[in-house]
Specification:
The structure is a homotrimer. Chain A is about 60% helix and about 10% strand. Chain A contains 13 helices and seven strands. In chain A, the strands form two sheets. In chain A, strands 4-3-5-6-7 form a five-stranded parallel beta sheet, with helices on both faces. Chain A has a two-stranded antiparallel sheet with strand order 1-2. In chain A, helix 12 links the parallel strand 6 and strand 7. Chain A starts with 8 loop residues before the first helix and ends with a helix. Chains in contact: A-B, A-C, B-C. At the B-C interface, helix 6, helix 8, strand 4 and helix 10 of B face helix 6, helix 8, strand 4 and helix 10 of C. Chain A binds a DNA duplex through helix 2.
Chain lengths: ~290, ~290, ~290
DNA sequence: ATAGGTTTTGTCAAGCTTTTGTACAT
DNA sequence: ATGTACAAAAGCTTGACAAAACCTAT
């Protein structure tokens, strides 16, 4: 930010036509600029500051008060930040903190408009949900805020998946085993598969293994994915898994499962985040 | 709502021609405006307030009493609030008329949040673009507005299609022949195919037929779709089409082609709107 | 560094017009130069030193303080040293060659995640599109591949521009004149203006000048930009341009226009790539 | 519409420091 | 050539002020 600060106040004044004293007043009163400083304390401005001052001037010329002009320019600067570091999860986290439904959806809108679903999931949502978990563990977020985040993210992801059971590609049935309540990862995995041309059926959280078998038969699944976040939830189901693996290509995923456990029941284990896992599964079957 | 309040009463007065004292009176007596306040207590108005005052002025000029005018303006505002007209293209068209990018995208957001891509294309976008064409022909829309609409719709559709060449399904190459500049229908067709599990490569408008052949070879296409809106653009390319048809499953589509013409070069003809055509092609190959 | 030292301070002073005492001061204070020494202790400068001094002079003439000028010259030298190329367009071009939509979008995702939109446009997209044009001219890319690249780039840029007509800044209407079909540059220009706080309305390629006038009135444009890539497309429109220029601040841009042509119709001409032009326009109006 | 009080905002001054080109003595 | 000195130009902070714009209440 102050990285490219190199204009002194006189030159900024020359370039914009705003008197030095006024520039200092705008800084002091409205925080319009945050120039770096030379060793001796002189203000050093960058090119972006020239833009900001010009924008403020335009607004003031248009009848807006100085204070409001500064506020608008600063708000715009947020938009710029968004343009410059679009993959940050901060806007989303802020909205979650405020329980701001509209803000959270707007943040997701911006992301999904700019980036592929794969990228948004891998680079924003997975880290964001992880961080939300940590904040909750440290007591910096309430359970309510965490639920709020989950609900919004799940809702948006499911909306993206609309119609994902249609088509002609390979078919996958995704589910969490009984006792596992975190279904967002399998929805992400489903989107990853969908992007790779698969047909996807998501059964959701806390699903009895017989139901999974039944659903797999019904849609003629080419693969069945059982994902577990929490360790141990699969422990009591070795027999059911073995049976499932005997009939379908069974895949375990998530940190609650392991390659060893998968091997034991005749399944494969997929490592990594949901998108990586989707890629691996597609490679496996394709 | 008061989020965008930034005009002070003097500027609002300047922009509307209504004296500040009168603006305050309207606020006090009829609640016409609800400006925010600065820290020091100054009123801060937003763009919407300018509109309201202007509408009230028009009504008063038309002979309505001030109290009544305020009531009407406020009632009107209420109507604007509940825009529950799910599948109508009116909000989109209104936004296009106003060259309102945000409004148009918001309208599309609402549609896409509620309905499948197929539905939005068939029931909203195709009719809307058709109507835009008619309005343009009748001189009720300018070319600029039509371009504006095309750009937004094309942009959104392409965003929906991002990543559509990935996967394991059948592969299609879509293009418009030389001279044909309307590529939105093939993008729609591509989305229809994608929803049916296909891999899609769109070459776009105005593409030489040799390029199409080259691309088809490169991606190993199972089908090649050449779509023409304007009659006659395919007339000079019978030989090239014949050659293309000899190597790939060639399909012609759009009102600029015909079943007879297709038969003549050894291709199939797909009737109907892009989604119907996608369904037909999927049935044909699947 | 000082391997070919052969200029004494008097000669360096002659060539640059900077007094010897000042050269010594710059060396002592800012470490701008590191001359070798003769046996007798005389400073011996090389060709690079002449450049450095000249660059410092230019910066100082441009209003930068001596200390900052020296810092910038030295930093510049550092940058020249490490030719990292994370900004290469090769992954994008490779993906285009393969008609690989996912690959191309992933390449753009990576770029946009790491660099500002301005940087990606100036340093990657403009050169990449230029190179694609050349490859096409040399027959190393087909028209289909070129269309494919355009569609992806245009789609991503438009996605970045979502909502760009919102805000409180100055407003610009951008369009290409009739016959000009390359609209990507104006979209880039629009993004450049957006990053500088402007509200942007893009009408697109091949737009009649009356439409532009109409749109400018509708959004209350502070500037109208008409951009032409191909020479001659503006030739038949001198009257219409003159009229436009009479009502709005009209700006011509692109290699298909010229300063002379602009002057003739009462418009300004903007040189350079779209981002440079955006900066110039912002400076003009601000 | 007026009166009387408040807020906003551009400007200025005083007293002191930093920066920088040049000059002088060694 | 070096080191020190110096003075003009440009900047910094604090505090204050006055005109313009706005407030409420009568």
């Amino acid at each position: 930010m102050t990285d490219d600060g190199y204009l002194r106040i006189g030159e900024l004044s020359q370039r914009t036509g705003v008197a030095p004293a006024l520039l200092r007043a705008w800084e002091r009163r409205y925080g319009l600029l945050h120039p770096g400083r030379s060793d001796g304390g002189f203000r050093l401005y960058g090119d972006g500051d020239v833009d900001r001052v010009r924008r403020a001037q335009q607004l003031i010329a248009g009848g807006v008060s100085a204070a409001e002009a500064a506020r608008l320019v600063l708000a715009d600067a947020d938009v710029e930040d968004d343009l410059d570091t679009p993959l940050a999860s901060t806007p989303l986290l802020d909205a979650v903190r405020r329980l701001d439904d509209v803000g959270a959806n707007a943040a997701l809108d911006r992301l999904l408009a700019r980036f592929s679903t794969d990228t948004v999931i891998t680079d924003v949502l997975v880290p964001a949900l992880h961080e939300i978990g940590e904040l909750w563990a440290r007591g910096e977020l309430t359970v309510g805020q965490e639920h709020f985040a989950s609900a919004i993210v799940r809702g948006r992801l499911l909306a993206l998946g609309r119609g994902w059971d249609q088509g002609a590609g390979a078919s996958a049935v995704l589910a969490c085993p009984p006792g596992e309540r975190h279904d967002i990862p399998i929805v992400m995995l489903g989107l990853g598969l969908r992007a790779r041309g698969w047909r996807v059926t998501v059964l959701g959280a806390d699903t009895p293994l017989e139901s999974i078998d039944d659903a797999a038969a019904r849609v003629g699944a080419d693969a069945v994915v059982v994902a577990a976040l929490m360790p141990g939830v699969l422990d009591d189901h070795a027999d059911a898994l073995r049976m499932l693996a005997a009939r379908r290509r069974l895949v375990l995923a998530g940190p609650g499962a392991s390659a060893a456990q998968a091997a034991e029941v005749g399944a494969r284990y997929l490592e990594g985040d949901p998108i990586v896992a989707a890629g691996a599964l597609a490679a496996l079957v394709g």
